Amino acid sequence: MTTADAAAIAPVAALAFGACLIVAIDLLGKLGSRASASLGAIVALGAAVIAVAVGPGAPGFGAMVARDGVAVFFVALIGTVTAAVLVLGAGYVTRDDLPPGEVVALLLFSAAGAALMASANDLLILFLGLELLSLPLYVLAGLHRARIHGDEGALTYFLLGASASAVLLYGTALLYAATAQTTFTGLGRSTHNSLYLAGLALVLGGLAFKAALVPFHTWAPDAYESARTPVTAQMAVVAKVAAFAALLRVIAATSYGEAALDWQVSLAALAAMTIVIADLSALGQRRVKRLLAYSSVSHAGYVAIALAAAGAAAGPTIAFYLAVYAALTIGAFGVLTLLPNDDPTLDDLAGLARRRPVLVGALGVFLFGLTGVPPTAGFIAKLYVFEAAARGQLLWLVALGVLASVVSAAYYLRVLLACFAPPRLDAIAPGRARVGTAVVVVAAVVVLAVGLLPGPLLDAARTVRF
Amino acid sequence: MTLALVVAFPLAAAILIALAGGRLGRRTTGVVASLAIFLSFGAAASMIATMLSRPLIEARIGPWLPIAGADFALVVDSSMLAVTLTITGVSALISVYSIGYLAHDRGTQRYFAALDLFVAAMLLIVLASNLALLFAGWELVGLCSYLLIGHVRERPAAGAAAVRAFVVSRVGDAAFLGGILLIATSFHTLDLAQIAGVAIEHGNMGTDPLVVASALLLVGALAKSAQFPLHVWLPDAMEGPTPVSALIQAATMVTGGVVLLMRMRSALAPDVLQAAAIIGGFTALGAALVAMGQRDLRRVLAWSTISQVGLMFVAAGLGAVFAARFHLISHALFKATLLLGSGSVVHAASDELDIGRLGGLGRRMRWTAGAFAVGTLALAALPPVSGFFSNEGIAAAALAESEPFLLGLALVTSFISAFYAARLFVLVFVARPTVEREVHESSVVMVIPIAILAAGALVFGGLVSSGVLPIGSGRADEAPISIVAISFAIALAGFSLGWLTYRHGLERARPVEEVTGRLANGFGVDWVYRVTFEQPFTAIARELDTGAERANQLAIDGLVLLVRASSTLVRRVQAGYVSRYEILLIGGAVALLAYWNWSAR
Amino acid sequence: MPVEILVIPLIVALACALPIGALARPLAVLGGLIVAADAAAGLWLGYGVSSPMDPAIGSILGADGFSGAMLVLTGVLFATGAAASTGVRSPRGYFALWSLLQVTVSGVFLARDLVLFFIFWEAMLVPLALLMWLWGGADRRAATFRFVLYTMTGSALFLIGIIALGVGAGTFSIPALAGYRLSEGSQIAFAVLFLAAFAVKLPLFPFHGWLPRAYAAAPLPVALVLSGIVAKTAVYGIARICVPLFPLGMSDLAPGLVALAAVGTLYGALLATRQCDTRGLIAFSSLSHLNLIGLAAVLGTVEAARAVIVASVSHGLVVAALFLLAGMLASRTGSSAFATGGLAARAPVLAMFTTFAIVAAIGVPGTSGFAGEFLVLASAYVRFPGAGLVATLVVIVAAVYGVRFLRATFFGAGAARGDDLSRRERAILIPLFVLILVVGLAPWTLTDSVRLVTAQTAELHR
Q1: Which of A120, B346, C76, C271 is the most exposed place for a label (fewest CB within 10 A)?
Q2: C-alpha distance across the termini of chain C, in Å
Q3: By the 8 A CB rule, do C156 and A406 touch?
Q4: What ipTM was predicted for this assembly?
């Protein structure tokens, strides 16, 4: 193992080792939920710090694991998000009497998988990462000892996820058959034959599943709703970031040279379908998590717009968008984790404004951000996506996206305004989770700060180039 | 600057009274208001000497609107100075009279503030050096008439009359505004002197936009001067306090249209001026016919005003500016006499307005009866009262312009006017009273103004006609002796006929009344106005409200419903069946696959 | 210079986070007044262009005579509205949002960059929606949704236009874009996209679907600024963005827009004659006035620009007075429905003040309403005498709705309840009336200071 190998795999390794460590400590002597969560968060943040500190450089393992700007940015993002999820999940684990060590370890494992996906420069590594990401999530989704419904959602998630993995694997096999290699760099040098194209299409389908693009999104609402809210946040953010990072690499590998492929039409079609269907589906939802599930599907559509318009050159735009999306989504789900009800309806939010004004203020920032209203970062992120689309001559997608944002305002606004309804008498008062509130407030501040001064994040996102 | 003071005095008084609120005291308010108008009269009078050496006096006070010519600037020549003196003089007397008339009114402050503003606004119409400022006066006159007609707010009829007066007045204002703006686009200025200069320089300005503009200005004049078909507001306007009617009909407002025609005549299209004369002639005759059958004391006078102003339109339309001005002033004097006199009668007879139920007041109210008699003679155009001379001037003008038709109209009108003037006077003051009542002469503060006005009406015509009293530039057309004789004969015939018919009261004249009473509804113009203006207006507004606006609202609701329906449709897919999800997943992958292979070909 | 116009209300908003309770209202009033004074000083001393904000977007703030006049109006109206916001629930939250609204509205007038303009433009919705929803009347739910979704749809098209234009031209700076040459066809296309936002927010007939309910349901001070100044951001957008950026396109679109505006002027006034509710009356009379202002805004001449400024300021002042009076009437009769009459006997000063406000609203000379209306119509007649004549008819219809309201409220037999105006109520109204008269008698105080900028606009137009 060379230094390059070690440097390339360091964050992933840190996450995985951290997970093992926690399991071990947990076995030796019971760790408290707070202690294990803190430890996990340190590990996750540590992985992010490692990624940034090591910085871009030569790839490792015979160019199978990349260590470029793309990997650094996304791994750092995944680490940070996972840390936030862990902190948010701490109080949760105590309340629901879940095994704290296992939950933290599983979350760290999934983060390791996501980080591996983001760094994968080879189809097999990609598949490895995908499985490492997915399997812990399947388990976490089913972590309800007393709920049947939860198991059903987890089962759906598992069945569909397995199918998607199969699709990806099948695509990998076809590509290997067509090109006799599995590295991404090899894909770009290949010729177009049916086998090759079919393989690519299946890989795209597999990744679109993880990114929850329509029509591969069907798992998302059920899984999001049934899983525990911190787990939902992990699914919604980490899995999506990893999937888009991988997709970006595949596209980058196949859009240059003689055998350059035109990804635009298929991605634009996916994006359009995603945005329309997701926004329409979200409109009538009264369950907040389901609503946010569709919202996250719809945001995948916006990322796909940028991908369709600029291909691999959309790296900075996508990175910026995903970072903002991560803050918004973690924040929104974070608020939900602080509520007494795990799967709240709009009516359950009644009275929140009076009881927890700070939380509602933060929720307002997130929801306006998800809608794309200035001065939140959500607006800037969408603006860059639309700008990219306009440059890519996809004005119709700009129009569609902008109008869909209007529709989305209808359902986001309803969530916020539900908090201002008069409180119900039988409602359980939310507990005071200081740490969780702090995370949420930090996320809100980040959203506003990036909205007002997008420069620093934009500079960071500019490193996402090939 | 004296010129500016003419307008400034009443304006300042209006503001002062409005701001002072009730603090000024009822009587003081009236005194301040009257004093301001007297001061204005004095300022105007002091300019007579200056006027002898200069044709024009100008005063530029400051800029107003950022449009060429639209400044605060006044101008006066000898003709308009005469009109100014008339307005301020008559208004001052009406104001003094009001002190007595409204001695027990609760809203004195409102009343006098509006009255002073009214006078100031009317002076703007006469003195403004540009159309924008003139229009300001034009609109403010309408506003003040609204405030004053609706002064007694507890009376529903007063409210209705005020609304109608304002709305009809605004119909004219809208037309007037359109005319002004068309002129502004053609002439690139609103300054009257410059407009006149350009118009004279380029000869006949009968171009299309100018014809339209002139026609619109004429419509404005018709509305303000209560000429057919926009006269409908004036008879109702009598619902206001009687001094207000005097103010509107004698001193201000209704003469506004005539003043406009006089001041704008060089810029107006000749056809439009011709039309003004013809409309004036018909209005004069028609209104006189209607006046014959009125039972309400004040409505007789209102219709007679419409008729007399019609005669002024005839003169102004024919270009006989002097004759128009002469009649304007003489009418102001005698109509103010009549209206204030009628106010005293109404005051004395505890608000009885039906001339059939009055009568025999002459002996109890000698001063009022005397003044009323002068006014009646003037209205009947009998010598030696002013109405005779000014009416004769109009007839002479029609003859000089060889308009036999208009001459005929004027003469017939004069006959009828004499007839109903006699009828009015006889029924109120001479005939035996049908109802016995306690009647007393009005207070001194009310009698003196009437007396002064009556005296003016008595001598004014003779003084002007004999050249002793100048009323500005121009001179009367020399009336042939035949015309003088004929018009005198006609007036005398009408007056005698009226006197004889109604000598013994209304009951005895029942056959005549049956004929004239048919005309009393104003040829159904009131009805026509309702059908052609009020009803369509409300109908359009209603249709828009229930039709267009509802449709607009429904369109949005429809859009929302559409989105909601498609949302329901889409959500059907997400029903929780794994098999269906699998189909979608595989289907999507297959579609991608198919597309890639197809597009590669 | 212009930065403090954003900073002052922002400080007020932040101060509301502190436990200041009863101080919030005077603070908000003070904030508005300082901004008004500051902007007025800037208006007569001349404005410069100020600091760049963030190089990433390349946005800059700046003010000229046009925005200066609008900023003065912003300060005045926000101070007035705050002064009228007595007894609101949770005052700190209310005045925080209120001041944020002021920041965003001022920002629209200050932005010299399309993206920044859009940011402020869209950010206005957030405090507006929350204020409407949380402090609004009975119909607030539907009204807020309609308002937000309708205006966002317009903004969406606007954003498409901004992105397409900025990407094509390589800059978002408004002055730079004014020098950018576009073909006539694309000018029309961009003008339509931009106008979508402005037409909805103005609202230009027939895009006023949100207006009646929003005016009825919003809390009174919010309705006041919504009509008085938020609508003016649309006017500003048309006159200062659409016209200089797309002179040919606007010139081609002008006939249609002028026709719509002329019809809308009349339409609003006609519907106002049908209202039996003061809020409804103000809503539709505002629709009428705003369409008239819009008529001039699309013309693009120097005269029209002057007319737009005078008419905008005038409408802001008049509608503020009307809303305040509507509130005072409602507090006496218990509802915003027309009183059953006879109020004049009990409250003569209220009657006088209301009459004055109506007189100004229907454009009687001497008041600002006339100056604005006259200048707008005068500029319209030069190119579109036909539409001008149609719009002139509003003089009649306005008289109908004005006196109809006065008659219903004040005439007739004496009312049972209702005291006259209190000292405090007079103190809020009188400054507005003074301003109405000042603008009516000396509109050149507003237009002289913008001579420079209108001349520039005209230059661009050529």
Answers
A1: B346
A2: 30
A3: yes
A4: 0.90
